[in-house]
From TrEMBL:
GO terms for molecular function: cysteine-type deubiquitinase activity; proteasome binding. This is Ubiquitin carboxyl-terminal hydrolase. The keyword Acyltransferase does not apply. Keywords: Hydrolase, Protease, Thiol protease, Ubl conjugation pathway. The lineage of its organism: Eukaryota, Rhodophyta, Florideophyceae, Rhodymeniophycidae, Gracilariales. It holds the Pfam family ubiquitin. Belongs to the peptidase C19 family.
Amino acid sequence: MTGSPVTVSVKWKKEIFTDIQIDPDETPQVFKSQLWTLTGVPPERQTIIGFKGGKLKDDAEWSALGLRPNMKLMLLGTPDESRLAPPAELPKVRNDLDVDADDENYQPPVAGPPGLLNLGNTCYMNSTIQCLNAVRPLVKSLTTYTGRPDAMNPAEKLAAGLREVFGRLKATDIASINPIRFLAVLRQVNPQFAERNNRGIFMQQDAEECWGEILSRLSTALKRNGEENQVDNLFAIKMRGEDKCDESEERINRQETVRALKCHISKSVNHLPQGIKEGLEEKIEKQSDALERSATWTRTNRIDTLPPFLVVQFVRFFWKPTEGVKAKILRNVSFPVVLDVFDFCTSELQEKLRAKRDAVRALESSSETTNTGISDDDEIVPAETGNYELCAVLTHQGRAADSGHYVAWVKDSGSKWYKFDDDKVSIQTEEDVKKLSGGGDWHMAYMCLYRAKNTV
């Protein structure tokens, strides 16, 4: 069902809420979020009566519910005092104690770019969005994307939803926005993100899985839209590898494309480059045709092409079957502000990078000014030296992937860092960011986002 918003009224206890608009292009979850805002009754506690067929279900189609203007509905349910309902936008409250309180143009101070309201265990999504918003060429590409939010294709619908969120994050006069529309689309596209616990509350999810889902859908949507695959243009890492059997002479050459490097964390890993090296050189078990049995192989990977934006994931979580949870490795692993991946590249790529690195060194040793390659955030900077500059960190605080709290730490176009703790935004220093290396229960890096930096 598509069309203009329909106005209804809802009675809850002794209150009647009039002029509530239902958008037929959105899911019932969005309508339930509106009621949560008004009443404090979270969606899982809501029983809405008045539609054809009985109670309103999350997956119901408006066309089958007899939705019409001026309908009178009834809401049953009790508020959850421990969970604050998300307002449509953060209200601009005047403080009577401020010296500017009598100024009708007074606006509350804003620490930086807008935050995102937590709609109940959605920090994994909020932190992912804030980090991806730092990839300005991706934001620019979505600005010109023509897909519709009511598209039948799930990837196109999610891309249109993210375009709307990115657009609203450009605001400079509000403290936070409500991402309920994008959340509804994300849960519709991938029901994993709509999982509830045994109390009916939406569960915490893994931010890395959310990151991967968003990029995968964006890749499909942009290609369907007739554009080149901007996602792979920005993030794709082409790898060349070899599997060598330790017990025979078998060798198998491999090629694959990934969108992130893995930082493995063992007892010998103290720094990010060490973890990346372990991730590129590992022992695996696989079938040997020569031995006609399973054998140990040495798998070696090298980077064959570098992307403008490099994502590194810390492999901090592992499955504990006895407890049925993803447990966390708390080890302190430092990460550099400038990451050099030259040593992880194929010899052919190293030759290409070496020529540029030598040229840059020659310029830097002279009086000429070198171009860092990061002056225009909206433009794609090719990775020509193998050096990258840190521009965002997604952290996790807690002991398990499906619990705890995710936060985004993002650098602006200058040298200022912002901490996006859902709707709470604060200014940080580079030294604050360096402390996110782990070793305890404080926020620790889970994903690092680097941007090509063509200096050495």
